[in-house]
Structure prediction request, 389 residues.
Amino acid sequence: MKCFSMFSKDKSESKKRESRSAPELRKHSKSDDSAPSPTTRSMPSPRSISELYKEREHNLRVFSLEELKEATNGFNRMLKIGEGGFGSVYKGTIRPLNGRGDPILVAVKRLNRHGLQGHKEWLAEIQFLGIVSHPNLVKLLGYCSVDSERGIQRLLVYEFMANRSLEDHLFNTTSTLPWRTRLEIMLGAAQGLAYLHDGLEVKVIYRDFKSSNVLLNESFRPKLSDFGLAREGPTGDRTHVSTAVVGTYGYAAPEYVETGHLTIQSDIWTFGVVLYEILTGRRTVERNRPTSEQKLLDWVKQFPADSNRFGMIMDPRLRGNYPLSVAQKVGKLANSCLNKNAKERPTMSQVVESLKQVIQESEGASSSVHKSAGTSSTRKGGAGGRRSN
Prediction:
């Protein structure tokens, strides 16, 4: 999907850095915020992302370009595992820092060489992923920065995610994700977002939650990736962060698109969109469908979650292997996330609890089905036995 953006260029472009030096990270939200409002002196100000990063920057490994060329066999096209507006991602292997042990599988993101915006997003990735630590956020191992006469080189090195993205599986016509796996993926993603919203000194607005940014490891554990558009949340008396509108069409919250006011609730809206993708197996926009079905959120409104018609929107590839009553509850949760009044949307912590309950109910419903099937089978066997006597 194409991204929409209306970035204005920063006139004060930072000075070029040498390849082995740690990047200076700007406070993105500070430059985007509207004029600061007075705050109470007795309340200590939370540290910024930049301040938190300075404490932990030593945890990131600084790679040379030669190391990453070797890791990816010269950025061989056969090792390319992803591509987007930012550039390309390659599968690679690196040697442990101490030189001992087996090579480590990694994903190397190589940003396009042109444009200030790519550099900004590279910095944002480093500053946010450099301070977070959560099982549902992808781990950044290090970076590479080279400025030369041939141009700039900006690269990022992540842990390798063997099962690609949620998008790859959800919209794949050759296979499908089981119902239980879908719920567990959404629970893990919700836990990652809840951590960003409430687990750090400063609130982080992810801003780019979508199925292609939910990566899956070998055990299908979800991890949020791509923090290039993330922003620090509002502090003090501020209610929002004012920014240029960026993101992926079909996911962004309506109030953000209309005003440029970014809040934690913007992430809640996008989570609701992906919940409906999970339920239906459809992308948020599909131009090859009839007009009334092209926009996912408009289409699902015709099948309310509290009606018997709701089952008509469920992904047919699931073949009915899910409890409809539980699916309806997921639909209602999605609707609450998609409330037009941002203040009435649940918090991500509340979403996490709701999904935990949904998974429990889904397990209970499945157990009941298996028990009744087993009882029916026993009765049939008993009757047969009596007939044989």
In short: The first helix runs from residue 28 to 32. Confidence is low (pLDDT under 50) at residues 4-22, 25-40, 376-380, 382-389. The two ends are 68 Å apart (CA to CA).
